[in-house]
Each structure stands twice: as C-alpha cells, then as structure tokens.
Q: What sequence folds into this?
C-alpha cells in the first residue's frame, strides 16, 4: 500500500544501504592499512647494521633505515586517517539509519490508519447489506 512516505522511505533506505557499503569498504581499507603498518614495522627488523665496511655502506644503511621509518610514519598516518574516516562513516550511518527508521515508522503508522479506515468502511458496508437483507426479508414476510 502506497503512502505519502513510500518514496521517501525508499530513498532513505537506499542512502542507508550506501552508507553501509561505504562502512564495509572503509573496514577493508583499515585492515589493509593495519597490515601495511605491521609489515613495515616488521621489515625494519630485517635491515642489518653493517659491522664493518666503508662509509658509503653506513650511509646506505642510514638512508635505508630513514626510508623505512618514513614508510612506517606514512602507514601510521594512513591507519589514523582511515580510523577517522571510519568513525565519521559510522556516525553518518547512525544518522541515516535513524532517518530511515523515522520515516518507516511514519509510513507504517499511516498504513495502519488506512487499513483501519478500510476495515471500518467494510464493516459499515456489511452492516448496510445486512440491514437491506433484513428489510427485504421483513417486506417479503409482510406481503405474503
């Protein structure tokens, strides 16, 4: 049964589903960011410090170590950014879900109201038919 809220409920439901998909996508991105961070933190343990050699080997080691630390810092930033986006998306999903539920409740209430009106009308119609049938029986009994 269509009401004045039907199309709005559909739109709100679509928005809510879009937010849910966005939240799922952000969860996957967060997992990927956390894995990248963990991997970059583990990789720094595999960089071996040269025990002897010329200065260029030590400089190369230092450059490699600085690059790995930069990668770790970048991945930490990525994790933090993704966590913030995830929190924002969760809040937005909560707002959108509330909106959907609000309009869905209004639609359900209006449908119940219309059904009650229909039932009342049907009851009146049945009463009228019963009254007409009763009167017809009464008239046929009086004339016979």
A:
């Amino acid at each position: 049964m269509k009401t004045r809220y039907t199309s709005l409920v559909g739109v709100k439901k679509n928005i809510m589903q879009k937010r849910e998909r966005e939240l799922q996508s952000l969860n996957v991105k967060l997992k990927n960011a956390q894995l990248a961070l963990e991997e970059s933190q583990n990789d720094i343990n595999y960089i071996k410090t040269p025990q002897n050699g010329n200065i260029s080997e030590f400089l190369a080691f230092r450059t490699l170590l600085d690059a790995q630390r930069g990668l770790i810092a970048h991945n930490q930033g990525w994790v933090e950014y993704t966590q913030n986006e995830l929190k924002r998306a969760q809040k937005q999903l909560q707002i959108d879900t509330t909106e959907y539920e609000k309009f869905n409740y209004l639609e359900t209430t209006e449908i119940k109201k219309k059904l009650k009106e229909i039932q009342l009308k049907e009851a009146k119609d049945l009463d009228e038919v019963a009254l007409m049938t009763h009167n017809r029986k009464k008239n046929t009994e009086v004339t016979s």
